[in-house]
Each structure stands twice: as C-alpha cells, then as structure tokens.
Amino acid sequence: MHPFSLRRLLWAGPLATAAAVLVNLLFFSLTKALGEQYILPLDGSSTNLGPMSILMPVVVTLVPGLLATILFGLLLRFARSPVIAFLSVCVTALLLSFGGPFYLPSATLVTKLLLCSMNLIAGVIITAGILILDLNRTKPLL
Length: 142
Hints:
It is built from 5 helices and 2 strands; from the N terminus they run H-E-E-H-H-H-H. By secondary structure, the chain is mainly alpha-helical. The protein has one domain. Strands 1-2 form a two-stranded antiparallel ribbon.
C-alpha cells in the first residue's frame, strides 16, 4: 500500500494548483513592473500583436494543475507505482510545454524565456505540491 490517499488528493491538488496560480501571477506582475511588455500574437499570426492579458497565466496554470490532480488520482487507483508514473508524465509534459512559447511568432526571446519560466514555476509547484501534500503521514517527520 502506498502512502498516498485519494481523499487527501481532493484538497492537495487544488491547493497546489492555487499556489502555482498565485506565484505565477506574482511573477507575471513583477516582470511587467520591471518592464516586460509580453507582446504576443493575439490570433496566431505575426501581424495582430497585443499585450498578454492577466487571464492567460491563470488559465495556463489552472488547467494543467487540475489535469495533474486527475492524473495522479487515476494513477493512485490503477498504477502499480503511481509516483514514478506521475513524475514521468509531469517531466515529459514540462519539457513539451517549453515548445509552445518558442513557436510564438514575433515574440521576443525575453518574452519566450519568461513564459518558459512560468511553465517551470507551475510544473514544480503543482508536482511537488501534489506529492508532498497528499502524503499520508502516520508518523511525525522529525
């Protein structure tokens, strides 16, 4: 029996996701205050450019967080070693997420790197948060 609980996952996943959203919003606000414009193509073309809205970091962090929670719940139920499978999928998804910002036409390299940084922040907080918060601790850590 593994030391994780589906019941604890029901609050651990949303809590880790909310933390990742808040940290990404803080990162977004801080980098905007330092002068980053986040000028992106609004419709996929390189002609219709505009600033990224504050809603984008929220959605791009919220959706993967909820999907990760669902995935870990399914892995807890059906996988023999859910943590290894979960970490494998999370690392793969994180690496693939770096491709999105680099294919944005007309975005500057700084913007692309900052968007990748937001993906990294979200990935680490969500993955670690789900694993740490969902642990069933029967003994104190110390």
